[in-house]
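Supplementary Methods. Inverse-folding protocol.

Structures were first reduced to a discrete structure-token string of length 192. This string, shown here, constituted the complete conditioning input.
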């Protein structure tokens, strides 16, 4: 059964008719329950109105694949792959007219969280993302207004206390890598 992300039911009640589940149509081999969970988390991050940091940057994200695959280097182990796309909008730009580095890190944070949630859920866990411990980012090339980006996320490890995932942000318009990052998350302490 799906554990609804904290606060999602209230958001659904406030925004009746705005969230239309489409997890049945998302390509990939992940179980439908895992796809539904990831889509719910995307809704949490992208439909917070003026309440949440980065909501406008997350709104154009579109899920295009959710899969659970054998790891390339260790085929007996599995990894989650979550692919999203978006088009760079004006509110994502820095003063030089290129996608702001902070926007890239925000998207890396959000999107790798979906991958860690998918792998956790598919392997019997709660599917609840942790809190960021570190995000290491490398910028390769700029992205401009109107560029279509593909955000390819892959889980690297899912443990009891820490999880990690990587992301590559590709500019589909210009066929180049914009940024890559690795995120490590930890399970929040119950004392918080």
């Amino acid at each position: 059964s799906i554990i609804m992300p904290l606060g999602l039911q209230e958001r659904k009640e406030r925004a009746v008719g705005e969230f239309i589940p489409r997890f049945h149509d998302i390509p990939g081999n992940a179980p439908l329950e895992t796809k539904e969970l990831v889509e719910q988390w995307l809704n949490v991050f992208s439909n917070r109105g003026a309440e949440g940091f980065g909501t406008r940057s997350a709104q154009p994200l579109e899920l295009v694949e959710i899969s659970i695959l054998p790891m390339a280097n260790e085929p007996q182990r599995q990894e989650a792959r979550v692919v999203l796309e978006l088009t760079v909008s004006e509110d994502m730009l820095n003063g030089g007219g290129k996608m702001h580095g902070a926007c890239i890190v925000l998207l890396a944070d959000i999107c790798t969280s979906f991958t860690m949630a998918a792998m956790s859920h598919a392997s019997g866990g709660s599917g609840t993302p942790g809190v960021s411990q570190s995000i290491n980012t490398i910028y390769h090339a700029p992205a401009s207004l109107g560029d279509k980006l593909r955000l390819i996320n892959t889980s690297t490890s899912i443990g009891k206390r820490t999880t990690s995932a990587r992301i590559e942000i590709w500019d589909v318009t210009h066929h180049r890598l914009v940024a890559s990052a690795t995120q490590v998350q930890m399970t929040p302490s119950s004392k918080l």
